[in-house]
Q: What sequence folds into this?
């Protein structure tokens, strides 16, 4: 039962690659400005050093710690930890949420933006997956709008 | 030149011998003993698990080994640090950023019920005990008690002090207390202060510092519920059952300056013998928590590495036994040293490629040398044990376990580790370069440790010392530094050295005056930061290139460094820069273009807070590197966004 539901869900997702691409695009829009900022910070910190050559090829934890201590744009560099590498990324993201770790303000801003867009779009996404067929941009955003307006009321009801 | 330095050193030594704060005129070993044995304790103590209390009686036989008579005795009552919220310990903890209010059952205290002194006759002085606060005048602090004597105790005179006391065991503070049926007792008995030639050195209990006491013989009987395992300083002599369901564990330790113990019915007791061709045998006793069964080899191997390398480098461990305590989860008692006993600390999941529990075991076992045997004043010069030991531990970590020391991060409340197999931990990471960098200017090391800013002292005490000793190792060479440290160890074991003695030994063994270096790292709080300001290499006539190198001192502290320029044909030019001026300029006319320049290419100066700016190349790949890592970071951020959106 669970497995078949799981398979059905995956099939519906696979049938709608545009939704996945859209979600990825939105995360990109939210993350790219900050990634660009941290990229500038990295570039500036490395300068013309020999360390830059090492860092281009491998992990240099010494440099990593030095860079993370710099502050940089909106203290983003403090998030530049080994947790950005490989599966640690996933562990870190979930653990950060469950352990209620504080979030750097710039990340919180990006998160707020993304969450707003996500809450708006989730009605359209669910509608698209539920129908299992193309619903077009108009249908998608109409469903998004309807559900988006319902969400605050539903949340209030849940709270009561 | 050499004889001039020798004369200066002798003059300085003579000067120091007359002006040193902290010396004790009669600190020679007692006949047939290793130490002066001037603070000897016979203690009977009973644990009452039902109301979490201790009830004890002790006799202190104390000898005045200072140059002057004293008409007063001073005692530490450390557990009173948790008697009220206005104790100096709790005030400082709040200053350090921890404003958690202790839960109602967490408080602890220590009450003297009776105090008698035997001089020409027996005097009851219980009613004249008063509390003093020599460090900050805090009248709410009751961690130091004083009592005036009917007659002064002359130099080398002895007095017997009988004390009865009761204590409420705290939930864990400062690594002491209880959690469920696990108890750890550190600084648990009324303990006499240290009388130096210039008076009592009895500091209040501070949140950021540790302890200081004289050597002696401890003969201690601990009554605990039958079936409880006991681990303690010294060696177990007997265990005898009492009629009321309790057992008395008798331990005896000689030439030690403190006594700690632990008890729990859950410990698994394991033993192993340390043997070595030239060092004395040591029986290792491990009290392991059941949930960590299977990790015994890792604890023992780390203890063996410590006994071996510290023994070979500094001097032999003389006691013949050592107890390793694996503390209970959330007991807060892990990672602490006491004479012949220490607490380690591990996790349920402990990956083999990560040095936990090894590094904490090496560190705390290492304190048997730097704290236990060389008894520096931790209140005032915490770096002399924590810092020297951090350096020594990092060295053992590298030599004994370097091939399997990888970085790990812990997630989900610390339960789930993730090992980064492409990030091998270098020694400077173990030596805390990142921590030092963050707070390099917070305090000068010469500031008495108990006056450090509470939350920053650790980085200056542990890491700055480890880094400047590592710098000395690279500068003078390990054989020289090792010889200096072993000579210092041998001269000051079972005594209380001051910083000047350590510096003097380093100067003497190195055969040079290192005072300017000590001025920077010990007396000052300036940072070291050397770097390259400019590298140009341009054509200058037929077939020649003019290379100009400008190196710069960005920090205020100074140190001599090499400047290495490498040319495109692989040839090298090395300059020795004294590092005093703000800049130095080097010009080369060569047939080939320069490729790169490095200040301090061998990284001798481990305290340089920004090593990235130490080099410059004409073929930089910074853009490539920044693109690579900013993309990885972006993927991480996208993951964060998706996770929060999915779970919220």
A:
């Amino acid at each position: 039962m669970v497995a078949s539901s799981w398979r059905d869900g995956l099939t519906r997702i696979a049938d709608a690659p545009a939704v996945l691409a859209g979600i990825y695009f939105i995360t990109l829009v939210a993350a790219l400005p900050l990634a660009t900022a941290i990229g500038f910070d990295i570039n500036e910190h490395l300068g013309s050093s020999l360390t830059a050559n090492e860092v281009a090829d491998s992990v240099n934890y010494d440099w990593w710690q030095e860079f993370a201590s710099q502050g940089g744009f909106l203290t983003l560099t403090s998030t530049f930890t080994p947790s950005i590498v490989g599966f640690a990324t996933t562990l870190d993201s979930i653990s950060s949420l469950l352990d209620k770790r504080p979030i750097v303000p710039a990340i919180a801003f990006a998160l707020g933006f993304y969450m707003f867009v996500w809450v708006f779009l989730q009605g359209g996404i669910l509608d698209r997956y539920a129908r299992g067929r193309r619903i077009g941009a108009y249908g998608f955003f109409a469903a998004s709008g309807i559900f988006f307006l319902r969400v605050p009321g539903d949340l209030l009801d849940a709270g009561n | 030149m050499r004889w001039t330095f020798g004369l200066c050193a002798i003059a300085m030594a003579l000067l120091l011998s007359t002006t040193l704060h902290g010396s004790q005129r009669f600190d020679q070993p007692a006949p047939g003993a290793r130490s002066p044995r001037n603070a000897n304790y016979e203690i009977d103590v009973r644990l009452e698990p039902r109301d979490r209390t201790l009830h004890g009686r002790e006799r202190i036989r104390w000898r005045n080994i200072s140059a002057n008579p004293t008409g007063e005795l001073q005692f530490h009552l450390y557990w009173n640090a948790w008697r009220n919220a206005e104790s100096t310990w709790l005030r400082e903890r709040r200053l350090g950023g921890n404003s958690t209010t202790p839960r109602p059952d967490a408080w602890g205290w220590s009450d003297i019920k009776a105090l008698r002194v035997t001089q020409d006759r027996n005097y009851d002085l219980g009613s004249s005990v008063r509390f003093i606060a020599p460090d900050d005048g805090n009248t709410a602090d009751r961690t130091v008690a004083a009592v005036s004597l009917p007659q002064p105790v002359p130099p080398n005179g002895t007095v017997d002090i009988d004390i009865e006391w009761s204590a409420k065991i705290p939930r864990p503070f400062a690594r002491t207390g209880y959690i469920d049926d696990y108890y750890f007792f550190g600084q648990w008995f009324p303990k006499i202060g240290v009388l130096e030639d210039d008076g009592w050195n009895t500091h209040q209990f501070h949140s950021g510092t540790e302890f200081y006491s004289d050597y002696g013989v401890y003969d201690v009987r601990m009554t605990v519920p039958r079936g409880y395992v006991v681990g303690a300083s010294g060696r177990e002599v007997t265990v005898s059952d009492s009629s009321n369901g309790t057992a008395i564990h008798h331990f005896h330790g000689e030439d030690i300056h403190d006594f700690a113990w632990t008890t729990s019915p859950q410990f698994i007791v394991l033993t192993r013998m340390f043997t070595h061709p030239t060092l004395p045998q040591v029986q290792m006793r491990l009290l392991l928590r059941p949930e960590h069964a299977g990790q015994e080899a890792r604890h023992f191997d780390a203890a063996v590495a410590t006994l071996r390398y510290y023994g070979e480098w500094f001097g032999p461990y003389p006691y013949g036994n050592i107890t390793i305590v694996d503390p209970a989860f959330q007991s807060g008692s892990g990672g602490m040293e006491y004479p012949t006993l220490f607490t380690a600390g591990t996790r349920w999941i402990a990956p083999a490629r990560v040095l936990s529990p090894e590094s904490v075991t090496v560190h705390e076992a290492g304190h048997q040398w730097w704290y236990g045997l060389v008894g520096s004043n931790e209140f005032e010069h915490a770096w002399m044990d924590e810092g020297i030991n951090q350096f020594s531990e990092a060295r053992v970590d590298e030599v004994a376990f370097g091939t399997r020391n990888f970085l790990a991060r812990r997630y989900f409340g610390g339960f789930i580790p993730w090992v980064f197999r492409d990030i091998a931990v270098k020694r400077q990471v173990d030596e805390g370069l990142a921590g030092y960098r963050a707070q390099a200017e917070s305090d000068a090391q010469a500031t008495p440790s108990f006056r450090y800013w509470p939350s920053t002292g650790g980085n200056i005490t542990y890491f700055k010392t480890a880094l400047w000793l590592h710098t000395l190792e690279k500068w003078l060479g390990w054989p020289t530094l090792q010889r200096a440290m072993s000579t210092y160890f041998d001269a000051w074991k079972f005594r209380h050295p001051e910083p000047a003695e350590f510096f003097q030994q380093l100067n003497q063994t190195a055969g040079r005056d290192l005072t300017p270096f000590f001025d920077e790292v010990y007396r000052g709080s300036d940072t070291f930061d050397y770097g390259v300001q400019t590298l140009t290499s341009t054509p200058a006539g037929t077939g020649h290139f003019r290379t100009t190198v400008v190196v710069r001192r960005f920090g205020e502290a100074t140190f001599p460094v090499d400047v290495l320029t490498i040319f495109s044909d692989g040839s090298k030019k090395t300059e020795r820069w004294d590092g005093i001026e703000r800049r130095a300029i080097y010009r080369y006319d060569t047939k080939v273009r320069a490729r790169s320049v490095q200040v301090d290419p061998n990284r001798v100066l481990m305290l340089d807070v920004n090593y990235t700016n130490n080099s410059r190349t004409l073929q930089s790949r910074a853009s490539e590197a920044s693109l690579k890592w900013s993309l990885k970071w972006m993927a991480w951020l996208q993951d964060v966004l998706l996770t929060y959106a999915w779970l919220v």
Q: What stands out?
A: The mean pLDDT of chain B is 95.
